[in-house]
Amino acid sequence: MFRLLILVLFIAIVVALFSSLWSLLRSPSSDGTTANRLLWRVILSALLILALIYGFNTGQLHPHAPW
Predict the structure, then answer these.
(1) Strand runs (DSSP E) across 8-54, as ranges?
(2) Which regions of the chain are under pLDDT 70?
């Protein structure tokens, strides 16, 4: 269930990134739409980092690195 939350956050970040790119290409004027969409991407990225920190600290996520 926790991994599903992380996956949803990651997909939302990618969607927000491409949405802001589309907004920039569609109307490069300074109406603030692109900046708002990029702000949402930053907020979602911060939530993803917090979720990863919480997951590693509680033991719900485990690193699989060989070192």
Answers:
(1) none
(2) none
Task: Give CA angle at 60 (54, 63), nearest 5°.
Answer: 90
**Residue in the block written with tokens 């004027």:** 29
Distance CA 6, CA 28 (A): 32
Residue type, 46: A
Rounded to whole angstroms, the Cα distance separating 59 from 7 reads 18
Amino acid in the structure at residue 61 = L
Could you state, in order of their start, the residue ranges of all structural domains in the chain? 2-58
pLDDT at 41: 95
* Alpha-carbon separation of residue 38 from 2, 43, 47 (angstroms): 25, 9, 14
